[in-house]
Design a protein that fits this description.
The chain is mainly alpha-helical and 455 residues long. It has one domain. It is built from 15 helices and six strands. A two-stranded antiparallel ribbon has the order 1-6. The chain has a two-stranded antiparallel ribbon with strand order 2-3. A two-stranded antiparallel ribbon has the order 4-5. β4 and β5 form a beta hairpin. The longest helix is centred in the middle third of the chain and has 41 residues. It is globular, with a radius of gyration of 23 Å.
Length: 455
Amino acid sequence: MIAKFIFMINNHLSIKLKGILVITIFVAFSILLVLYPFIHFKYIGYFGILTIIITTMLSGFYSDSILVTKKYLLLPIIAITITYLIFAFVYSDSNRVVMAGYFGVLAPLSSYFLANKESRNFFINNFTKANVIILILLIIVSAIFAPLLDEQYSSIMLNPNGFSTVLTPISYSLLYLFEVYKRNQMKIRALLIMLLFGFNCAFMVFSRSRTGMVSLIAIVLLWVIYLICNRINIKRLLCNLILMIIVVSVTLPLATTLLTDVNYSIMNKEAKLTGRYFVFALERYGVCKSNGESSSHVDTKQAINGMVMRTEQGSKKGEDVSSGRFSIWKSTVKSLNFRGHDKNDVFYVPHRMDYTNDTHNMYLSMGFFNGYVGLISITIFMAIYLVYLFKLFINSILRRQMKLEYFFTLAVAGTFFIISMLSTTFTPTGSYIALAFWTTIPIFERGKMKNNDIC
């Protein structure tokens, strides 16, 4: 009844207005995520929940076709919900109650509103357009406040890995829009999107994030497979790849110049006018009383070499390829139990000679805080969902036809899986990439009979 009322309201709103609202809300939430390291907005999680509710509801279009429930996806999510509720009661933790509410109510509700093709495409289109705006804002702000130094680059986010998790959804959003504009014969827009993709790749190289680079390579490979599946001829495929290579080759030095010469020029002018300038760098930011000049001037070759050196970390004897993660994981495993842990509990990591509760792994994090039951529930869900996606992927290859929506879903899930193995980027209210993942899981679908379901 409530859903029909919401659909009725949606029918009275223009598609253009709804699109503007969805994009605005996504951009606002992303800005809060980017600024969080130094504003520490207390209620960002609740804003994330509102973002999911409003954007999915606005994206919903009414359909009277058959609603199919994928129980093999719904039941593991219910298990995760129950797990959170149990340990919320054990430790009197309101945050776990919120997470239980998300998985038990909002995740299925989001899928319900995005169950038909029209709703899902509307959501994806506006999500990807919001990412274009976010990247443009990042480029502008970085050019003014965040110089490229001889260290991992993080723009205004202070953390390069956090920066790469912002760039990752932008990467597949840009390739999605590139294909949309190509299909609609909008060549100028397609070229502009590819130029932005080049800047996005440059930022990823500057960040020196290996996780981010692996995600970016996975997205590009999936895009190539998408082109091949849709029977593109070799000549056109090569043209697309050559265009991407040329654009990235051109934008790398452009981005370097933007973050060095242009940035230093802006800082110099600010310093001459005010006697100081505001600057962001790796894990630090603040006002500097200087003429704005930097001794750490970086060129494109140095930026690329920095990424190569970062990639080769661990290749020499005695080096830790995991950046300390193996030691953290080993300590986490020793701390696992059936009872779980309170949100303030920590474990000792000998490699760092420090205490922490950041497991740098989504599954171990679930196991540490919610016990073996939590670890098993999230592992079962991800295994089932990956099997579903694998069948979707193989089916697309065998049919030589991959829908653009499938490319987006596979890119979202694939990159989320890569990042979830190496970080605690898990909650849909604390990360843009996690929001995209949990919101687009197709628990419900319309227009298909059960015997035609892909699983």
